[in-house]
Design goal:
The chain is mainly alpha-helical and 144 residues long. It has a domain of 90 residues. Helices cover 74% and strands 4% of the residues. It has a two-stranded antiparallel ribbon with strand order 1-2. Helix 1 packs across helix 2 and helix 4 packs antiparallel against helix 5. The longest helix is centred in the C-terminal third of the chain and has 75 residues. The protein is elongated. The relative contact order is 0.08.
Length: 144
């Protein structure tokens, strides 16, 4: 989650969230929180500093540092959302994998059909030429 989204949920300013992170930076290793890079930052205009992004663990750490009733309640809701998301991915992972397998097979079949249709089209054109040549020769012989 972006720092600005976290701040909205916690009903505080983004700079407050970032200040807490900077003052406790040792509690936020890269797998908990990181700043977007310059090329990623371009999508978030109007900000002087690159936004922080928080993982589930970063949200948990942040909730321990923000000491308000809103922060506690929001943190619980965010953690529940992460748990639901993880469960959804776990229980539907096989379905996603099967969909990807089917997509790959369809692409493979499309390529094969393209080859077959191209060959059929080439053969049809060749057959058409042969029929026309035969008709012309037959007509010519019948005119004699």
């Amino acid at each position: 989650m972006l720092d600005s989204d976290v701040a909205k949920l916690y009903n505080c300013e983004t700079k407050y969230v970032n200040r807490v992170v900077k003052r406790n930076i040792e509690r936020f290793p890269e797998e908990f929180s990181f700043q977007l890079e310059q090329k990623e930052f371009q999508n978030y205009g109007g900000r002087r500093y690159m936004p922080y992004v928080f993982t589930e663990q970063g949200i948990a750490m942040l909730s321990a540092l923000l000491k308000s009733d809103i922060a506690v309640n929001v943190s619980i809701q965010i953690m529940k959302a992460f748990i639901e998301m993880r469960n959804f991915l776990f229980y539907n992972g096989q379905v996603f994998q099967e969909i990807n397998t089917m997509k790959s097979k369809l692409l493979e079949y499309d390529e094969k059909f393209d080859i077959v249709f191209d060959e059929l089209q080439n053969n049809k054109e060749e057959e058409f030429k042969q029929k026309n040549e035969y008709t012309v020769i037959r007509k010519f012989n019948n005119d004699d």
